[in-house]
Design a protein that fits this description.
Radius of gyration: 36 Å
Oligomer: single chain
Strand content: 15-25%
Number of strands: 32
Number of helices: 29
Length: about 950
C-alpha cells in the first residue's frame, strides 16, 4: 500500500473545530475525509451512541455500500457484535481477516459488505464511550501502518469533544421533535375519541397523515397518526398495519391520491362515502372480514393550490348506515378541526427552542460576519431538519442587485452547509418576471419581493418558474428574506432531499430566526466594512523604517518647520475635536445648535492630504478606544467627490430612495449617515456640484439632510474633513463654489506644504517610500528583508530636484530607480536615469496620478494586439505584487480612451471575457473581473 505524505493535522483539526454544535453532519463528513487522508483507505464507518434508541447508530459511512451501512445499527450492551464489544470494552481491534471471526453475526455482516479487514477504535470522551470508528478495507491484511494509526489517534483525541457536544445537541433536537409528534398523536387521539361519540352508528375513527414508505424512498404512504374505537380489539387490529400504501392499485385511497401525496381524482376534492367496503380494493382487508366494518365516510383535508394532502379523516360504521346531511356536516367540521389541531399543536416546543437557541447565539462574540452566519445556518438547518442550506448576502453591482454566497475567487462571504453538495454557488440575480428564465431563482425572487417563497417539488418546476438547481439532490426549497429597516440584506435558503418537506411551521420558524438576527447581521456587516477601512488606514500610518528617527506623529516625517506645523496642528486640534465626538455619545442637547465640526485640508496635488487625514483619524481612533474600551473602531468613511457627478455625488453623500435615478435598485444610506458618530473624509471638495453644496451646507449647520428621491428629513453627526488642491476663493469669484460653504468648511484649516517647501525632509521621505515600495514589489520567495539604500549623492540629487507632482512624483522616481538598479545601493546614476525617463507631469485634474504610465501603455498594447489577456498581463502580476494599483487604473483609463465606456466593453476590449455570452463560465469571469476592479482596485 503506497501512502502519500501525511496531511497537515492542524488544518484538519481547525476545520472540524470551527463548526458549532449544530453542524454534526459537516463534522462527520470532514472527519471521514481526514480518516481517508491519514490512512490511505477510502472506506470508514462512524457509529455514535444514541440513548434515545438504545443503540449504536451509523452516523457516517464512506466508500462502497455506504447507503446500506447507514441503515444499520447495533445494540449498545450486547457483546455478540464486534462493534458493540469495542464500544463496551473501550479496546481497539485490528482485525486483518474478518472471515476468521468467531462471531457468526459479525462474519456475515463483513461478507455481505465485502469488508475483509477492519481497524475498530472506540471513541471515548471524559472516560466513557460515545461511539466507534471503523476503518475498513476490501483486502485481507490491508490496514494503516503504525505511524498513521498514531496520527489518527492524535486527531481523534482533539476532535472527539467537539463531536460529542454536537452528538448530544443533535439527539436532543430529535427528542424534541418526537415530543412534538407525541403531542400531535395525543391531540389527534382526543379528536378521534370525540368523533365516535359525535355521531350514532360510528364504530371507528382514524386520521391518516402523509409519510415516506421507507427511509430514502421518495414515495409517500399514509400513516395512522391516531385511531379510536369503543371496541379495544378493533383499534388494536386496525393499528397493526401502520402504513397504507399509495402505490397504484394497492389500497382504496390509491385510486384518489398519488404516491407523492397529491389528489389525482377530482372526486376526492370533496368527502366520499363508500357504502359497501367489501366490494372495494382494500389493503386492510380485515376491516370487513374481521371487524365487520361495512361503510366509510372519508374526508380529505388538503392545500387548495397544490392539492397536497394534509390528512385524511376516516369515519367507519359496522352498519349499512348512510350518513345524513346533518351528520356529514358535523363530520366535515370535525375533520377540519382535527386538521387544525394536528398542524398547530406541538409546534410550541420547537418555537420556544428556536427562541432560546437564537437568543443564546446572539449573546456570543463572533470574530467576524462569516462565523456568525455559519452558526445561524447550522442552527436553522438542524432545528428545521433540512438537509442543506445557504445564506446569501445582497450586493449592489453596476448591472443590478445580486445575491452572493461566495465571491468570484470561491471565498465564502455568506454561508453554506454541506459544502461538498454545493461546491460552487454562482451569483444570483435579484428580480421577478422581468428576468429571463435562465436567471430566475427562488432566492432572487424572495429578495425581490421581500417575502418567503417555497418550491414544494423541484421535479415539477417548469422552465418559466423561479428555481435554479445547484444540485440534483434537492427536491424542495424554502427561501426567506432577512430584512432590516424594510430593506432586504440577505436571504436564508433551506433545502430538503424530500419533496413537499417544508410546512407552514417551518416557514414560521425561519421568520422568527430572520427577525431575531437581522439587526445583528447588519451591525456585523457595518463593523466588518469599518474594520477593513481602518486596517487600510493603519497600513498607511503604521509603517516605519527603522533607519529613520524623524517620525513625529504616527509616521509623519517632520525635520522641516513646515512639517512641524502640521504635527503641531494635529496635536492641538484632535483632543478638542474628540471632546465634541464624545459629547455626541452623551446626546448633549445644546450640541445641536452649534452645528457640526469640520477640518479643511489644502495643498498641491500629491502633497499628502489623504495621508495626513489618515494620521488625524488614527489619533482620534486611539482616543476613542482608550476612552470607551468597548473594542470597537471609531466609524470612518472616505470618498472622492471628483469620482462622481450629478445625482451620484448627492447619493454618495446623503443616500437615495429606490427609483430616484436609473440604477437606484434599492434604498441606500449615504456615507454621512453610515459614519454617524464618526469621521468622514471628502477629497476634492472643490468638484462638488451646486445641489450637493447646498445640502452639505445645511448638513454642517444642523446635521440634517434628505436622501435623494424622498422628503423625509434625517439627522447624522460626523466630523467632516474636506480636502482640495484647488483655489476655492478663485472658484467663489467665478461663481463655481458657495462662499458660505467655504467659510463653514474652513473654520479649522490645515495647509499641507509642497515637497519643494520641505526639502530637508526629502532624504528621510525617500528612505521611507523606498522601504514601502520594496516590500510591495519584492518576490514572495525573496528572504532579503532589507531594501536597497540611497547613497548620499542620490539623496542630494533628490533634494535638489524641483517637484511638480510632490509625493507622487518622488515615489514615481524611486519606483523606477528600484526597478532598474542592481545590488543593494541606489546611486546618483540610478536617480539621474529615473529622472531622465520620467513621464510628462501628471495632469492635476486626475486625482490618482500614474506611477508608471509607460508600463501601463505597454501592457495595454500587448492585450489589444492579442499577445496577452487581462488575466495574464495585469491580474496575475498584481496578485504577485509585481504591478501597482495605479498601473491597473491606468490600463482601465486607456481602455476608456479607446471608447470602452461601460464595464462590459472594457472587459471585452481587455480580453478578460465575453460579457455578451450566456455561458456560465464567461459570466463568472465577467463577475470576477468587475469584482476585482471595484473591490480590490477600487476604481
Amino acid at each position: 500500500m503506497t501512502l502519500s505524505s501525511p496531511p497537515d493535522l492542524k488544518d484538519l483539526l481547525e476545520k472540524i473545530n470551527s463548526y458549532g454544535k449544530e453542524s454534526i453532519e459537516d463534522i462527520l463528513h470532514v472527519l471521514a475525509q481526514s480518516v481517508s487522508l491519514l490512512t490511505g483507505l477510502s472506506r470508514c464507518r462512524i457509529y455514535l451512541e444514541d440513548l434515545t434508541k438504545g443503540r449504536l447508530v451509523c452516523a457516517q459511512a464512506s466508500g462502497r455500500h455506504s447507503q446500506e451501512l447507514l441503515a444499520m445499527s447495533f445494540p449498545i450492551s450486547t457483546g455478540g457484535f464486534l462493534i458493540s464489544h469495542v464500544y463496551s470494552s473501550q479496546e481497539e481491534i485490528l482485525q486483518e481477516d474478518m472471515g476468521a471471526l468467531e462471531a457468526v453475526e459479525s462474519r456475515d455482516i463483513a461478507r455481505r459488505f465485502h469488508i475483509h479487514a477492519s481497524w475498530l477504535l472506540p471513541l471515548v470522551h471524559a472516560g466513557r464511550s460515545i461511539g466507534v470508528l471503523c476503518v475498513d478495507s476490501g483486502r485481507i491484511g490491508q490496514l494503516p501502518p503504525q505511524d498513521r494509526q498514531q496520527q489518527l489517534k492524535t486527531l481523534l483525541q482533539q476532535v472527539i469533544p467537539t463531536l460529542d457536544i454536537a452528538r448530544k445537541y443533535h439527539q436532543q433536537l430529535l427528542l424534541a421533535r418526537r415530543i412534538d409528534e407525541g403531542k400531535n398523536r395525543e391531540a389527534a387521539l382526543y379528536m378521534m375519541k370525540s368523533a365516535v361519540h359525535l355521531v350514532e352508528n360510528l364504530t371507528l375513527a382514524s386520521v391518516l397523515v402523509p409519510s415516506p414508505l421507507s427511509a430514502g424512498n421518495r414515495a409517500q404512504g399514509l400513516q395512522i397518526l391516531a385511531s379510536y374505537s369503543e371496541q379495544p380489539k378493533a383499534k388494536k387490529v386496525y393499528e397493526d398495519e401502520q402504513l397504507i400504501s399509495l402505490s397504484q392499485g394497492e389500497s382504496l385511497l390509491s385510486r384518489y391520491i398519488a404516491d407523492d401525496g397529491t389528489i389525482i381524482d377530482e372526486r376526492f376534492l370533496e368527502p366520499l362515502y363508500f357504502s359497501n367496503l367489501a366490494a372495494e380494493p382494500l389493503q386492510k382487508r380485515y376491516l370487513t372480514e374481521e371487524l365487520g366494518l361495512k361503510s366509510l365516510y372519508a374526508v380529505p383535508r388538503y392545500a387548495p393550490h397544490s392539492r397536497r394532502i394534509h390528512c385524511v379523516v376516516n369515519y367507519y360504521s359496522d352498519k349499512d348506515h348512510n350518513f345524513t346531511e346533518f351528520e356529514r356536516g358535523l363530520l366535515d367540521a370535525h375533520a377540519e378541526m382535527a386538521e387544525r389541531v394536528i398542524r398547530e399543536i406541538g409546534g410550541e416546543h420547537m418555537e420556544i427552542q428556536v427562541l432560546a437557541e437564537i437568543n443564546d447565539l446572539l449573546q456570543e462574540r463572533f470574530d467576524g460576519l462569516q462565523p456568525f452566519l455559519n452558526r445561524v445556518l447550522s442552527k436553522a438547518t438542524e432545528l428545521i431538519g433540512a438537509d442543506t442550506g445557504s445564506i446569501a448576502l445582497v450586493r449592489e453591482q453596476e448591472d443590478g442587485i445580486w445575491l452572493m454566497v461566495e465571491d468570484s475567487d470561491g471565498t465564502i462571504i455568506g454561508a453554506k452547509s454541506k459544502e461538498w453538495l454545493k461546491k460552487n454557488i454562482p451569483p444570483i440575480r435579484v428580480g421577478g418576471h422581468e428576468l429571463p428564465p435562465e436567471q430566475r431563482s427562488l432566492t432572487g425572487l424572495a429578495a425581490f419581493s421581500g417575502q418567503a417563497k417555497l418550491v414544494a417539488n423541484t421535479d415539477e418546476v417548469g422552465p418559466q418558474d423561479f428555481y435554479r438547481p445547484i444540485t440534483s439532490h434537492v427536491k424542495s426549497e424554502l427561501a426567506v428574506p432577512i430584512l432590516s429597516d424594510d430593506k432586504v440584506v440577505a436571504v436564508i435558503c433551506l433545502d430538503s432531499f424530500r419533496p413537499h418537506y417544508f410546512t407552514d411551521e417551518h416557514r414560521r420558524i425561519l421568520r422568527i430566526i430572520e427577525r431575531m438576527i437581522a439587526r445583528y447581521l447588519v451591525d456585523l456587516q457595518q463593523i466588518a466594512a469599518l474594520t477593513d477601512e481602518v486596517h487600510q488606514l493603519r497600513r498607511d500610518v503604521t509603517y516605519k523604517d527603522p533607519k529613520i528617527s524623524s517620525y513625529k506623529l504616527g509616521n509623519i516625517i517632520g525635520n522641516s518647520r513646515k512639517a512641524g506645523e502640521v504635527v503641531s496642528f494635529i496635536q492641538t486640534v484632535t483632543p478638542l475635536v474628540f471632546n465634541r465626538l464624545l459629547s455626541w455619545l452623551r446626546n448633549s442637547a445644546e450640541d445641536n445648535a452649534l452645528g457640526l465640526p469640520s477640518i479643511f485640508i489644502t495643498g498641491e496635488t500629491g502633497s499628502g492630504k489623504e495621508f495626513v487625514f489618515n494620521n488625524i483619524y488614527s489619533r482620534l481612533n486611539e482616543m476613542y478606544q482608550t476612552q470607551l474600551r468597548n473594542g470597537r473602531e471609531l466609524p470612518v468613511k472616505k470618498t472622492n467627490i471628483a469620482a462622481y457627478s450629478g445625482d451620484l455625488t448627492y447619493s454618495e453623500l446623503f443616500g437615495h430612495k429606490r427609483g430616484a435615478f436609473t440604477g437606484a435598485h434599492t434604498d441606500r444610506k449615504g456615507i454621512l449617515e453610515e459614519a454617524h458618530g464618526g469621521v468622514v473624509f471628502l477629497d476634492e471638495i472643490g468638484d462638488a456640484d451646486p445641489k450637493t453644496q447646498v445640502q452639505l451646507l445645511r448638513f454642517l449647520d444642523n446635521g440634517s439632510f434628505v436622501r435623494l428621491g424622498e422628503n423625509q428629513t434625517r439627522f447624522a453627526r460626523v466630523l467632516l474633513i474636506a480636502a482640495t488642491n484647488k483655489d476655492l476663493p478663485q472658484l467663489i469669484a467665478r461663481g463655481l463654489f458657495r462662499e458660505d460653504l467655504y467659510h463653514r468648511l474652513s473654520e479649522l484649516t490645515l495647509e499641507i506644504p509642497s515637497l519643494n517647501e520641505r526639502r530637508e525632509d526629502i532624504p528621510d521621505l525617500s528612505t521611507h517610500f523606498l522601504g514601502k515600495l520594496y516590500r510591495a514589489y519584492k518576490h514572495p520567495d525573496d528572504r532579503e528583508d532589507e531594501p536597497p539604500q540611497l547613497s548620499s549623492s542620490a539623496q542630494q540629487l533628490l533634494k535638489e530636484h524641483h517637484y511638480s507632482g510632490n509625493m507622487r512624483e518622488l515615489r514615481s522616481i524611486l519606483l523606477r530607480a528600484l526597478f532598474f538598479s542592481r545590488g543593494k545601493m541606489i546611486g546618483a546614476d540610478n536617480i539621474r536615469r529615473a529622472l531622465a525617463t520620467r513621464p510628462d507631469p501628471v495632469d492635476t485634474s486626475e486625482p490618482h496620478g500614474a506611477l508608471n504610465r509607460q508600463l501601463a501603455q505597454q501592457l495595454f498594447d500587448r492585450i489589444v494586439n492579442g499577445e496577452e489577456n487581462f488575466w495574464t498581463a495585469a491580474y496575475e502580476p498584481y496578485s504577485r505584487n509585481r504591478l501597482a494599483r495605479d498601473t491597473i487604473t491606468d490600463i482601465i483609463d486607456l481602455a476608456r480612451q479607446r471608447g470602452a465606456r461601460t464595464m462590459p466593453r472594457i472587459a471585452a476590449l481587455l480580453k478578460a471575457c465575453d460579457p455578451a455570452s450566456e455561458d456560465a463560465e464567461q459570466r463568472k469571469l465577467f463577475y470576477r473581473f468587475k469584482n476585482f476592479l471595484y473591490k480590490t482596485i477600487r476604481i
